[in-house]
Design goal:
5-stranded antiparallel sheet
């Protein structure tokens, strides 16, 4: 992957989650859209940090994985509370899978819990817009439970990515 960093971007998305218990392997929310994650003319970069914030202390944030896609995985099962099933036609859209273990849960006190991966440098490639004038490149994501979390409210989860945008291309 090219190493010439042009800029660093922070993007976030908030899945709509259920307040019932999730099973391991369930989608947490549905497909996330990380707009303007990458520069439009290169559409490449590296995720250098990923965070999942749960705003409710009553929740039980568990291990999970964040699947990142260059385009929406529209043929796969990505429904909240359903078992994630990656369809064959969406395999080429996968650009990275970030795994958060339960040992990385940090208790934020009485208000929240937090999962974070740092110094990860995972390459990602988005789908560039049809023309440069239409804006920057988008990444898509999906949270998949690795445990049995419950959440306090529908908008309690925030997924945040820090991405180093580069000059493009993989080495």
């Amino acid at each position: 992957m090219a190493t010439n960093v042009i800029e660093t971007r922070e993007v976030s998305a908030t899945p709509t989650v259920d307040t019932s218990i999730y099973a391991s392997g369930d989608c947490i929310g549905s497909v996330l859209t990380f707009s303007n994650a990458l520069r439009s003319y290169t559409s490449t970069g590296r995720v250098i940090q990923a965070s999942i914030l749960d705003k409710t202390a009553a929740s039980t944030l568990a291990a999970c994985s964040l699947w990142l896609f260059s385009a929406s995985p529209s043929s796969s099962t990505t429904t909240d509370q359903a078992a994630f099933n990656l369809h064959d036609s969406d395999i080429a859209k996968v650009c990275s899978v970030l795994v958060f273990s339960s040992s990385e849960v940090v208790d934020g006190g009485t208000a929240n819990q937090f999962l974070q991966l740092t110094e990860i440098a995972r390459p990602v490639r988005g789908t560039p817009p049809t023309t440069l004038a239409t804006g920057d490149s988008t990444l898509y994501g999906l949270l998949v439970s690795g445990g049995t979390p419950t959440f306090g409210a529908a908008s309690d989860v925030i997924v945040r990515l820090t991405i180093e945008c580069d000059q493009g291309g993989y080495d």
